[in-house]
Amino acid sequence: MEKSTKRVYAVKVFNKTDAEMIMRIKQVYLLLRKLNFPTITKPSYLFISNKTNTARVIMDYITYPTLECLIKTHGHFD
């Protein structure tokens, strides 16, 4: 949570990433930043650590149900 705005974020962590994976993460990050679609979460920040070989994508936290909850409620999709 950002203290000044009380805004809640989600963090997606990619562990043990190599150079090719980092390049793909950057590409997807930049693509998602350009999209404007109500069901796609727009990432806010991307942090890459070459020291720990990790990447972190910071995005808005949304309270949609999980896929598991949707399947339990509506059954499997055909």
How does this structure look, described?
The protein is of the alpha+beta class and 78 residues long. 31% of the residues lie in helices and 26% in strands. It has helices at 19-34, 67-74, and strands at residues 9-14, 43-49, 54-60. Strands 1-3-2 form a three-stranded antiparallel β-sheet, with helices on one face. Strand 2 and strand 3 (54-60) form a beta hairpin. The longest helix is centred in the middle third of the chain and has 16 residues, at 19-34. The chain starts with 8 loop residues before the first strand and ends with a helix. The relative contact order is 0.22. The mean pLDDT is 89.
Helix content: 25-40%
Any idea what the shape is? globular
Element string (H = helix, E = strand)? EHEEH
Strand content: 25-35%
Give the radius of gyration.
15 Å
Provide the residue-averaged pLDDT: 89
- Unreliable runs, pLDDT <50, ≥5 residues? none
Spatial arrangement of strands, main beta sheet: 1-3-2
